[in-house]
Amino acid sequence: MLKEYRKTATIKAGQFDGSYEMIKKYNLGFWKGQDTGEIYEYSIPTKEGVLDLNIGDWIATGVEGEHWAIDDEIFKKTYEEVD
After folding, report:
1. 3-state helix, strand and coil shares in percent for the chain, rounded to the nearest 5
2. Smallest Cα–Cα separation from 44: which of 55, 36, 52?
3. Nearest-CA neighbor of 51 among 75, 21, 29?
4. pLDDT for 24-65, tens place per residue?
5. Structure pTM?
6. SS (H, E, C) 17-51
7. Angstrom distance (rounded) from CA 73 to CA 4
8. Residue 43 backbone dihedrals phi, psi, to 5 degrees
9. Mind listing the pLDDT tens digit for each residue in 4-24?
10. Of the candidates 61, 65, 67, 63, the residue with the CA atom closest to the CA atom of residue 28
């Protein structure tokens, strides 16, 4: 029988803007285009492995200090700001 569950822990989250400060803070990987040098793909190390990250995604920090990426649309449907 399936039961419903609600998350009880709060997280801290910031929306990724592609800035060097966020790349450094979260130890993000990124790839540059060979011809233009433009950054075109980001990745974030998580407990489960490395995940892709896009500008506009949210970087969540859990209760144990772990980080993971959440798509903007999913974040807005799943989380609400706490006062």
Report:
1. 15, 35, 50
2. 52
3. 29
4. 999 999 877 677 767 668 999 999 999 999 999 999 999 899
5. 0.81
6. CCCHHHHHHCCCEEEECCCCCCEEEEEEEECCEEE
7. 22
8. -145, 155
9. 888 778 899 999 999 999 999
10. 67
